[in-house]
Amino acid sequence: MTQTQQPSSDPSAAQPSTSPRPRAARAGLEPGWTVEDSLDLYNVRQWGKGFFDVNEGGHVIVRPTRTPGAEIDLLEVVRGMRDRGLKTPVLLHFGDLLARRLNDMSEAFRGAIKENGYRGEYVAVYPVKVNQQRRVVEEVRRYGTPLGFGLEVGSKPELLAVLGMTSDTPDRLIVCNGFKEDRYIEFVLLAAKLGRSIIPVIENITELKLIMKYADRFHTRPRIGVRVNLSASGAGRWRHSSGVKAKFGLSLTEVLEVFELLKANGMQDCLQLLHCHMGSQIHDIRNITQGVSELTRIYAHLVRMGAGMKYLDVGGGMGIDYDGSQTSFEFSTNYSLSEYASSVVYKVMTICDEEGVEHPTIVTESGRAMVAQQSVLVFEALGANRPDRVEVPSALPAPAPGEEELPRAIIDLWDAYRAVTERRLLECYHDALEARDESIRTFAVGYMTLEHRALAERLFYATCAKIRDKCRDMNSVPEDLVDIEASLSDTYFCNLSIFQSLPDIWAIQQLFPILPIHRLNEKPSRRATLADITCDSDGKIDRFVDDHDVKKCVELHDFVEGEPYYLAAFLVGAYQETLGDLHNLFGDTHVAHVKLDENGQWWIDEIVEGDSVREVLGYVQYDVNRLSAEIRRECERAVRQKQMTVSESQELVRAYESGLSGYTYLETDD
User: Fold this and answer.
1) Which of 32, 166, 413, 416 is 20 to 30 A from 590, alpha carbon to alpha carbon?
2) What is the pLDDT of residues 195-225, one digit of tens each?
3) So what CATH class is 408-485?
4) Which of 165, 176, 227, 234 lies closest to 200 in space, CA to CA?
5) Topology of 118-365 in CATH?
6) Has this prediction a pTM greater than 0.70?
């Protein structure tokens, strides 16, 4: 598609400057709520980087090219999917956004190269492991080809897929990482024989010997890379994946052993690429510059020893600003894309000039930074559990028959509820806690009725709700009351599986921006955690981004029975789809690839329907035809025994077979 505007390569340059609002405003407490308040509350423009915004109707919109007016209303897309018979959960891919992001990276490095007078080139390779879905890889290849971008593979299946889809672009760089056996190396050397620009990266000495064996067999001189373990480590939750004890890579001693072995066989000129793994989601630019400095120094020494080095592969690690704070917080980054590019280019150039070696082609493998922003997961809230909505009697009930008076815990809770004032918040809270605990003990030993135990529970939650409401108006909340908001938060039950669609939330406590996609011109009056529909206590989201912090609940609108309420998780394009599992046999969601035409109108380019029940049962080796046949037999037995009529049995068979063909997620009626 022809783009009418070329935005800056630095996403932060596209953002309007905004000053922080007071905490009360960010909590959604002031009257006259507007769309701007929602943008501030959810920090949309900061983590959205010009790609995401909210329109006047209160709907989240996507601007894939950051061009004003060329935007996609997420609620409209969801309704469009529903009109096509496909309901949420649905994963939305925006190919135009992906194209813009790849251009951002290219422009950032081209700008840094020009600004610094760097005499080498830049190429990005996309690590297929980050998102292996066919359409995503094809789009990365298509949009990246004019930019000179290539692909990186980490396994034999990924290599075979990439070889088959790049036959028309043999000059594009393919970097081969991961452990390699004979067949993997054989494919690499045959591809090199075809004229492909392919470089296997040595992870151990055995791989080098295999490369030399097949090079001799096929009479070719392959280009070879080597991965080195740096002493510098990354930052954040993946900091231990790098350094001298990293899973992949060679020590300096082993790197020299590789070079000497190649030299002994007259192949030192084949050693052309030096690679490292600095980590993933590195949030501090200082860790990046330290790693690049050490890697470049090693590169320069290998060149001076006689290696035919041409490529300096700084690996991945470029982070995504998930919370929009642009700080060294682990879910953010304290650098922009342009600063990352400038730091890498300047550091490589400076050290190469010091060492007197030519400037290499800089290679990056920052897959997260390439594809994270182009995917949005939309799901629907099914219901809500609201613990603070309890009815409190106007007066205490009379003692039960046979009792002289109410249990002491009931009276104490009643007194605490009535006594709540700003001056007595802590006192009333502690009294309520003590009385609540006493009611539990009294009931456990048989000295309290079930009705009184339930009344004690209602009085406790009502007291806490009054205390919470008072705290919202305070500038400084007592330490013991800081968590009272979270303890009274709602639970919104959502039609999705965390384990299938957002596995990193469960596995590594990753945070993604999550907010409603509509009603953002209304003030959100509830705080909630989210629960999925799996039968697993870990299937919940109770940690949310909050501008350089983590909050325990998210601000949502009041759930209204019978009205759809849609939420979305943003920046989920990296790792989530392939890492998802079949917990409770919830399968892949529907996927829609949404595009913009030349007139700025959105359309659905491709729909990939989610897994049916039949398909997921097949994944775990059930014979679905046999299952269906068993149901038919049982229905026939029930008819013979006059337990059901023929029409009832046929209705059951039809329902069963329809269920096998249906979506694995809840299929609610409109």
Assistant:
1) 166
2) 999 999 999 999 999 999 999 999 999 999 9
3) mainly alpha
4) 176
5) TIM Barrel (3.20.20)
6) yes
